[in-house]
Amino acid sequence: MLLRQLEYLVALARERHFARAAAACFVSQPSLSAAIRRLERELDVSIVRRGRRYEGLTPEGEVVLAWAHRILAERDALQQELSLLRGGLTGTLRLGVVPTALPVASLLTTPFCERHPRAGVTLQSLSSEEIRHGLAEFELDAAMTYLDDDTLRHVRRFPLYEERYMLLTPLDGPLADAERASWSQAAALPLCLLNSRMRNRRIIDDCFAADGATAAPAIESDSVAGLYAHLPGGRWSSVISHAWLHMFGVPEGMRVVPLEGPAHGPRVGLVIAHTEPTPVLAQALVTVAREAGVRDALDRQLRSHLGGHD
Questions:
Q1: How is domain 3-71 classified at the architecture level of CATH?
Q2: Contacts of residue 178, Cβ cutoff 8 Å, sequence gap at least 6
Q3: pTM
Q4: CB 3.0 to 4.6 Å from 194: which of 176, 201, 226, 233, for a disulfide?
């Protein structure tokens, strides 16, 4: 059994198409098909359901696929550890990030690359479900996500910061002079918010409901960037996580108003698969995260936008 055969199987399961899998592996389709047939003969099981087109894996094939992910991850971990012994960490760190944490990812990735100049980072914006799958299938080395996700299992958690919710509102709007605002006051404004598929939106909807209000945004976005794109015009207000100020700041003609309620929201942190030994790239990112002071950096930035008060 060759590692390349396992790589072909992983590509086929991911692409769900023989031609696309072959292209992803830079081989011909007959070569990929022949390699998987050899793997089936060596293991004496049928791995792929074959029809006129790819129809998925057999139950035995799913078992082989799980082992393929594990074996290839161990291969990568070995290469990373040996590179460290040779004088410098190499390889590519695969980092998944929930969309609402993307604006602060650079607080980890930049110092990581500065400390390990021969290593790189592949950053993916993923849903919580995609992160769970990526970690379980060894497709991710680490992820930035909400730590209170009960479906995250067999992972190690490292807190980074707690979300704090603020109102961004026009300087000439109804709350232009307010020192603080209630959630019901915010609900009465023309709003632009993330859509209800986003974890952040569901959290703030609970905050609106706790104050007896319901948000009815005129504009909804599936990304923080899409939300911010609507704010400079001076018409819309939005409820944001203070972490977004790190990347986007406060648009011209707007101000930040603290919202009444809990001082902190859910924790966002770094998670890695709970394996022994910990892969070198993942451990290197954990070391950076412990020293980065993400929470303090975000709180300082928030205070600067609030004029030194929070």
A1: Orthogonal Bundle (1.10)
A2: 185, 257
A3: 0.75
A4: 201
